[in-house]
Design goal:
Elements: H1 3-27, H2 31-48, H3 58-76, H4 100-114, H5 118-128, H6 133-140, H7 144-162
Helix pairs in contact: 1-2, 1-3, 2-3, 3-6, 5-7, 6-7
Domain RNA polymerase sigma factor 70 region 4 type: 109-158
InterPro entries: RNA_pol_sigma-70-like, RNA_pol_sigma-70_dom, RNA_pol_sigma70_r2, RNA_pol_sigma70_r4_t2, RNA_pol_sigma_r2, RNA_pol_sigma_r3/r4-like, WH-like_DNA-bd_sf
Family: Belongs to the sigma-70 factor family. ECF subfamily.
Length: 164
């Protein structure tokens, strides 16, 4: 590959690496597994980069490749690549005003999301990232209508988990 293509890839990867880290956090439960998954996603992005036609934003394309890679490894893995437990997600909470009740609600929500299947987790992740249904559908490779229907079903599923 040309140096220009490599430089473009490195720039795009640097600009969008938080996407990959968030997905790694979602599908791993320790630092080594996180690093392994990050490396594998980077390799898959690099392999696929020459085929990236720019029809969508790089970030949308990267979400899709990263999620597909994570889900594929998650399904194939013989060692448990478990999802991240709540305790390792505490750094996402704002510590400005400590609210025990809010923390407990977030903890319960994470526990509920952990019970979803991998595709449902990906959809919830994108939804919580404030992605619109167009971008969610492009990222997951499903229709916008299907994304909306799945999200409504997931909301119902989460309500049943949280309020049995």
């Amino acid at each position: 590959m040309s140096d220009n293509l490599e430089q473009l890839f490195v720039k795009q990867l640097k600009d969008n690496q938080n996407i990959i880290h968030k997905i790694c956090r979602l599908y791993t439960n320790d630092e080594d597994a996180h690093k392994d998954l990050f490396q594998e996603i980077t390799i898959q992005l690099w392999k696929a980069f020459p085929k990236f036609r720019g029809e969508s934003k790089f970030s949308t394309w990267a979400y899709r490749v990263a999620l597909n890679t994570a889900i594929t490894l998650y399904r194939k893995s013989t060692r448990a690549v478990a999802t991240t437990p709540y305790e390792s997600q505490k750094h996402f909470l704002s510590q400005e005003e400590y609210n025990f009740e809010e923390e407990e609600q977030i903890k319960l929500m994470y526990q509920a999301v952990q019970q979803l299947n991998d595709i449902e987790k990906a959809l919830v992740f994108l939804y919580l990232e404030d992605k619109d249904y167009t971008e969610i559908s492009e990222t997951l490779g499903i229709s916008e209508v299907n994304a909306r229907v799945k999200m409504n079903r997931i909301k119902g599923k989460l309500k049943k988990i949280l309020n049995p």
